[in-house]
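Margin note from the TA: students keep mixing up input and output lines. Inputs are the sequences; the output is the structure of the whole complex. Example:
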Amino acid sequence: MATATSPAPTAARPPAARRPTSARHRSGGGRVLNYVLLGVLFLVLLFPVYYGLVGSFMSPSDINTFPPRLWPVSGFVAENYANALEVIPLARQYLNSAAVAVLVVVGQLVTSVLAAYALVFLRIRGRRFWFALLLSTMMIPWEAIIIPNYLAMAELGLINTVAALALPYLAAGFGVFLLRQAFLTFPMELRDAARVDGVGSFGFLWRILVPLTRPTIAALGVWSFLSAWNMYFWPLLITQAPENQTIQIGIAQLQSVDANDPGMVLAGVVLALLPTLALVLFGQRFIVRGLTAGSGR
Amino acid sequence: MTTTAPTPAAVGKVGEARRPRSRREPGSWGAVVYLVPALVVFVAFFFFPLGRSIYLSFQRSDLFGRPRGFVGVEHYTDLFTDPGFGKTLLVTLGFTLLTVIPSILIGLVLALALQERIRAVRFFRTAFALPFAFSVATAAVVFGVMLNPATGVVNGLLSYVGVAPVGWLTEPSTALLAVAATSVWMQVGYNLLVLSAGLGAVPDDVLEAARLDGASGLRLQTGVVLPLISPQLFFLAVTGTVQALQSFGQIHILTRGGPDRSTQTLVYSIYDVAFANNNSNFGAGSAQAIVLLVVVLAITAFQFGFLQRKVFYS
């Protein structure tokens, strides 16, 4: 989900609160059709989620049966999980992914907060130039510069290290853009009041601005975590030994090692999904905020 | 950073200064300090590699990928005289269309359906957000299991309606479709979110007025609602295109560019030339990377130009 979200010229706005109105609902046949559409799309789009979860508990005889079973008829088996853990050093790969994600989240928050703060609140010579320069990184497709980045890591002897996985992602144009939008709507009176109270530039940033824009900063944090945890191309190049790989590469390995044991492969998928699934279920509003930030008109 | 704090004396002058901000903020170079952390990362991992990519694309590389002399535009002329690269561009275009158009259409149908006042809207919204938890790797692996020709559940379910097993990932005619389906599945939830936000911002009185004028059902949707959310639709089309052009994981996991190069997109081709099987042909790979860069930049520039006009217009 390393989404290349581009900025639209104005700030995102959250979906407007829905007022009860007659204009938005149909009656009779229209409504039935509506439910049918939703139902069909629900079944189709949620099926991979369902099958991934249930399949991870199916015995080989259940999951490899033709025609297929959609339920573990011969009982739920946890063995798939044990098998997956045998094929990949999962704990180690989890740790690698977590280390990369933490570094990337902290790095992006720090670099974005500082840069966005300077762009909005400080007098900078050539402000427009700096803003354009930072944003231009959003338009460079990462895949177009992946060869020199790989070569640089090889030359620095950083292949197979967490540092190499995280370094290029410690700043993101999207983060600067998102926080700049939030800071632009920050009441300037608070800035002036703080100044009257003798709060310095950094003190204002750290003690007033950051706490008061926490929801947007959290949205950026969630967005960076998801993209760091879910990276694929870069970790594939940078890591070779299984114990240095991230969980995403680990589960891809599961499939190539034994495609005849789908239950085990799906168990690996479920394990890789746990942190992001928790984030989606409990941090949904931050995800929505982060993901739709560029799309307002 | 403490040097940027205003002095007490300066604070005392607030009342007198006409534009207090300009006096008390750090001087122009002091402020740039705040930009330095981000700039260091961008210079090291975006701008410098960008220059090096261009440089490499004009170089011959040896077995270890080291640059071994200037070859001019040879890599580029090779690319554009190679029918294989023509096919790669066509596959890339096909993959992009097969991903962007269905994911917007399905997202639109969902967003419109959820716009109606029905029960369980929250339930549906949460459900449709679940695929966000999937990475490109987890999604591709699940689709790989489901699309297995012999034991996959997709062929199994199709057998109930009398469809013979399809080698989704092993037939050149269906492999691109299967990879695109995985991508669509990953994209739909996001498109739903963006379009829902757009629809939520459509004023009720506009809809009411259209209704009073006799518009209803499909005509209301296509004649009134769609134009109102055209900025969102356009945004999704452009960003979706850029993202589809950058897709890699699902192709690497599901088909490795095959069968018969039917899923060899531009990005996969870069990987294939530069990294797969220790090919290490970094010069030729960089030339393809520059082609990708130009395509993406052209689309992004188009987006900015268009949106700028749009903003002026409204």
